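Following up on my earlier thread - several people asked me to post the actual chain instead of describing it. Fair enough. Here it is, all 364 residues.
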Amino acid sequence: MSIIPISAGIPLTETEPKQKWLEEWSKQLFVKVSIDSEYGWGEVLPAAFNSPALYADIVKRLEPSLNGMEISEPGIIWEKLRKLTFSGGYGPVIGAISGVDIALWDLKAKLSKLYLGDIFGKNEQKIARYASLSRYANYEAVIRASKNIVESGFKAIKLHQTKDDTLESVKRFREEIGYGVDLMVDLNCAMNIDEAIKFANSVQRYELKWVEEPIWPPDDLASLKKINDIVPVAAGENFFDFFKFEDAVHLEALTYYQPDVTKVGGLTPTLKILDLLKKNHEQVAFHNRPHNGWIGIFASIAAARMNGVDALIETPPNGVPSQYFRYNAMITSEVIAPNGVGLSIEPIEPLPQPKDEKILIFHD
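Reply from S.P.:
Thanks for posting it. Predicted structure:
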């Protein structure tokens, strides 16, 4: 079995006006797992330091431990890798495992000549897409970009503005675009609990679908519960195991749960998390960094289909760039419906490489 981490620099598709974070969101890390002439693809979100190199090194170190294992049993391999790397924490290690696990599932479905989402039987789930925008210089740019996105057909938009201009951006959005479009905001953990409660009370009148990760740390469930009592809260991209999701469900801390298949360990733990959310009738909104990686997006859709849950899918406000990917799917501004084998998508090699790595500490 061969496991190869492949860094890429597929550029973020520019909007009008041009968004910020173009360089930061133009880095990807894919994982290619092959046996003989067959192969599967996975994706890792290199969140820590925005450093693909950090995660790629961990992926390389995983390969020797998989020699002789049955590639048809991703769950057994996941358990071995988790025990092998366990040190009480998660972060980059569980992120690296994510890419390997997704690739193994892709390969398993390809060997079976099935679409991965149908590997446990056909499910026709409602997988609704929304446009997730990068950050803009000011609220005037936010509104111009949002109007263009709405005109292209999107009916749901998420903003990533600072804690200082999010409220004004929301106000202007509702005044100029109206209430016929679902609107969400991601605060990127920028507030303390007092600031977040004040914000929640102020923004309540604008009928947001959710406020995402309003506070630091992002897994402070007791504080998230307080905010969720005022406005719908979404979180989960920074929950790195099943038990944190279980705790959040029991506490009723969230309205929308956001597992990220490229961060939480791949499809194997995601399926367990989805089973928990389905049994408790919780709403699922997969997190995906809205760049042009796309493997994680298709893996999220497959997970929803495999588990039989309706879900929202976070995507960039553009189509799959065909110069970088082969894919088989029906894609509109509202839905993505894969219909190939495996994940129904794979990168076209050779991929463009990222620019010289810059360490990203934190965005507020």
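Residues 359-364 have pLDDT under 50 and may be disordered. That should answer part of your original question.
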